[in-house]
């Protein structure tokens, strides 16, 4: 039987959130029904609710940083049991047959994976995300949340955490490596923590020094303001890896100049407008300019286990269901330390 779930819904671009209900599908053989406890607020939720990227299907229920408890399982489920602490990230299915899927890089599925919300299941049903009491997901796309991680601290790991963990691992951040993190928001604060735990020497590059104390507390060894031109001279040719978490257009040539021989600048934040850079900036020092998108299911589990082992979680501000519109305004002003997480229990009491 399909289940009805309370949810926060936006019915048109620019509208505010309303309490409403959505239907979750009847459990298929491999499905897991999850009682959601917390859902993180990702910047991409805001873009899609406002239809900034075009193509949003309304009504929309955002949320792809989901943690909760298994409430029921389909007859063939083997990976999860009722009562397990679990999470769901940015996608809920992939083709499972293409080369990236077979290689465990299902975030790069060639058919296109099924986004957790504002997407369509392969059977055509519109997907609704985590700002809701329950969700039904195939067991292969459900992560185990280790008991040492709090639900609220774990939620943002499902998008912000894996989005920075994947490039840090791919480009081998670790002892002897110098890593710069550009921007100290939801993504950036996790990049600092994870890069530090991996053993890299971590530098934060932020517009001003206003978050310097927090940056050092999170694990940064150095902290520089990018509004100070001297920063780019001082740090010229320094880094093995620059992780850019900023979604505004930056002067890319200036940042490429910070890379040492064979260094790479990886973008995980996406500006809406095209970016410009000079190829000469890459010639010097055989530098690379790259991008990276979230992470696969296998690597997301690895990231959760790594965070549990190292005592890492997101720094969060927990809010109720009626505070989401206000939280969006604050995210847009960068007024959050460092991620908002919705206490989904507050959806029940109207
Ligand atoms: Zn996200
Ligand atoms: Zn695939």
From TrEMBL:
InterPro entries: ADH-like_C, ADH-like_N, ADH_Zn_CS, CAD-like, ER, GroES-like_sf, NAD(P)-bd_dom_sf. GO terms for molecular function: alcohol dehydrogenase (NADP+) activity; zinc ion binding. Pfam families: ADH_N, ADH_zinc_N. It is an enzyme of class 1 (oxidoreductase). It comes from the Bacteria. Its cofactor is Zn(2+). Its EC number is 1.1.1.2. It catalyses: a primary alcohol + NADP(+) = an aldehyde + NADPH + H(+). Keywords: Metal-binding, Oxidoreductase, Zinc. Residues 14-342 form the Enoyl reductase (ER) domain. Belongs to the zinc-containing alcohol dehydrogenase family. This is alcohol dehydrogenase (NADP(+)).
């Amino acid at each position: 039987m399909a289940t009805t779930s309370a949810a926060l819904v936006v019915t048109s671009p620019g509208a505010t959130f309303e309490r409403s209900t959505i239907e979750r599908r009847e459990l298929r053989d491999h499905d897991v029904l999850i009682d959601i406890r917390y859902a993180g607020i990702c910047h991409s939720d805001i873009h899609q609710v406002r239809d900034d990227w075009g193509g949003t299907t309304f009504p929309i229920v955002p949320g792809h940083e989901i943690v909760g408890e298994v409430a029921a399982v389909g007859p063939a489920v083997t990976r999860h049991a009722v009562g397990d602490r679990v999470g769901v990230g940015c996608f809920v299915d992939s083709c499972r047959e293409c080369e990236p899927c077979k290689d465990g890089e299902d975030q790069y599925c060639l058919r296109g994976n099924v986004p957790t919300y504002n997407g369509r299941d392969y059977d055509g049903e519109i997907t609704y995300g985590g700002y809701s009491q329950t969700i039904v997901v195939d067991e292969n796309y459900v992560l185990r949340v280790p008991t040492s991680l709090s639900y609220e601290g774990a939620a943002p790991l499902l998008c912000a955490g894996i989005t920075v963990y994947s490039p840090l691992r791919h480009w081998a951040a670790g002892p002897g490596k110098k890593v710069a993190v550009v921007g100290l928001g939801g993504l950036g604060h996790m990049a600092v923590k994870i890069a530090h735990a991996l053993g890299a020497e971590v530098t934060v590059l932020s517009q001003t020094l206003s978050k310097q104390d927090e940056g050092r507390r999170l694990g940064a060894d150095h902290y520089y303001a990018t509004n100070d031109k001297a920063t780019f001279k001082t740090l010229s040719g320094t880094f093995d890896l620059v992780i850019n978490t900023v979604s505004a257009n930056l002067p890319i040539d200036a940042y490429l100049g910070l890379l040492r021989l064979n260094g790479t600048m990886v973008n995980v934040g996406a500006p809406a407008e095209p970016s410009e850079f000079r190829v000469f900036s890459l010639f010097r020092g055989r530098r690379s300019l790259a991008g990276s998108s979230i992470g696969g299911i296998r690597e997301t589990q690895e990231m959760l286990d790594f965070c549990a082992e190292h005592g890492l979680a997101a720094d969060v501000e927990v809010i109720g269901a009626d505070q989401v519109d206000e939280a969006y305004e604050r995210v847009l002003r960068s007024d959050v330390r460092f991620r908002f997480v919705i206490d989904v229990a507050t959806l029940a009491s109207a």
